[in-house]
Design brief:
Layout (H helix, E strand, L loop, with lengths): L3 E7 L5 H15 L2 E6 L3 H8 L5 H10 L1 E4 L13 H8 L4 E7 L12 E7 L9 E2 L4 H9 L10 E2 L5 H17 L4 E6 L7 H14 L5 E6 H10 L6 E4 L1 H14 L7 E5 L4 E5 L16 H13 L3 H17 L13 H12 L1
Parallel strand pairs: 1-2, 1-3, 3-12, 5-10, 8-9, 8-10
Antiparallel strand pairs: 4-5, 4-11, 6-7, 11-12
Helix pairs in contact: 1-12, 6-7, 8-9, 10-11, 11-12
Length: 351
């Protein structure tokens, strides 16, 4: 008998519910049996339950060990912390994997790209250690800085640990070995942040010695941006601290044709949460217009993770055939299809 998986589903905010509905249907059509444990978070939960991250969300993911998540809205500049960041930190989902692969039929200046970005997910400026200018902590730090920080500065702290760096670089190398990749590039800005990014590079160099069959190199993040625009084909697996990883994820998504097709996954020791790189695209909410591909490719990664590799590969084949054909695709791929219709086209392809 086929196994039934219990998986946490967070439909998300904005366009999230439209996308997750389509993804659920496509996954069902692959034949994989999933009982969805649906919980709400983000703006939707704030409105209905008064909190953006109800306890049952964390409990459900801890219990089921696997989650699929639609995008969650984070208001800018308010006291409301990002639920996405909180989930990764609370569950210690320290490794963020963002494959960037070209698909035929997607308009882009670049063809045949197959890059993988590995982003540290829990440290760095995303640790959320910030002090307002009037706080005692900020004043104390300004004093300690001996004139380097001006009085009245708001302060953000960037913790980078040896353990955290070791974990993420090892993840990148293990990924490279498992997927027969040739090179790992560590990306940071250690010429300026000599101590924090310096620790990241020092640790990465140590880890790299344990993987002599994989080439290792370092690039400064500003140079890396230019290199990726000019000759992305030279790169294979990139490993980065949190902030650079977040920014370069969108850059890499741009290289392969946009956020509509960029998948992601967050891994901890014994659990994983799968989500697209893109956000809730609020201006398209309720229009059934956005591309389900990014979350579909994230669920392909989820099927691989649970060992359903044959179904994962069928899903990717059906999806890439629909994209290549270009008849029933969403606006961002040059088509006129709705989210749901593109999903139906993929289901027909699955046969
Ligand atoms: P966004 O990714 O939501 O959208 C930016 C633009 O990209 C959209 O206007 C649209 O043109 C395009 N786009 C995004 N997804 C698409 C799709 N599936 N198909 C076609 N086009 C797509 O970024 P934003 O507007 O900066 O963020 C909106 C909200 O989402 C913010 O609150 C932000 O904090 C949040 N966010 C959440 C996540 C997450 O849940 N992991 C990630 C990024 C942003």
């Amino acid at each position: 008998m086929e196994k039934t998986y219990i998986i946490t589903l967070i439909p998300g905010d904005g366009t999230g519910p439209e996308i997750t509905e389509t993804v659920k249907k496509v996954l069902a059509a692959t034949g994989v049996r999933i009982n969805w444990d649906t919980v709400i978070a983000g703006e939707t939960a704030l409105q209905k339950l008064g909190t953006p991250l109800p306890d049952n969300v964390i409990e459900s993911i801890r219990k089921n060990k696997i989650a699929l998540k639609g995008p969650l809205t984070t208001p800018i500049g308010t006291g409301f912390r990002s639920v996405n960041v909180a989930l990764r930190q609370i569950l210690n989902l320290y490794a963020c994997l963002r494959p960037c692969k070209s698909y035929k039929g997607v308009k882009s200046r670049y063809q045949d790209l197959d890059l993988v970005l590995v982003r540290e997910n829990t440290e760095d400026l995303y640790a959320g250690i910030e002090f307002a200018p009037e706080s005692n902590e900020a004043k104390e730090i300004v004093k300690m800085s001996k004139g380097k920080a001006r009085e009245g500065s708001a302060i953000s702290i960037k913790p980078i640990s040896k353990i955290g760096s070791e974990q993420i670089v090892r993840f990148a190398f293990e990924y490279a070995v498992k997927h027969k990749r040739k090179k790992v590039t560590a990306v940071a800005k250690a010429n300026i942040m000599k101590i924090t990014d310096g620790l990241f590079y020092d640790t990465a160099r140590e880890v790299a010695k344990k993987y002599p069959s994989i080439e290792y190199e370092e690039k400064l993040v500003d140079n890396m941006c230019m290199q990726l625009v000019q000759k992305p084909e030279l790169y294979d697996v990139l490993v980065l601290p949190n902030l650079y990883g977040d920014i370069l994820s969108d850059l890499c998504a741009g290289l392969i044709g946009g956020l509509g097709i960029a998948p992601g996954a967050n891994f901890g020791e014994d659990m994983a949460l799968f989500e697209a790189v893109h956000g809730s695209a609020p201006k398209y909410t309720g229009m059934n217009k956005v591309n389900p591909t990014a979350l579909l490719l994230s669920s392909k990664l989820m099927l691989d993770y649970i060992g359903e590799t044959e179904k994962a590969s069928r899903l990717e084949k059906a999806l890439s055939a629909v994209i290549a054909e270009g008849r029933r695709v969403t606006y961002d791929l040059g088509g006129k299809s709705t989210t749901a219709d593109m999903g139906d086209a993929i289901i027909e392809r699955l046969g």
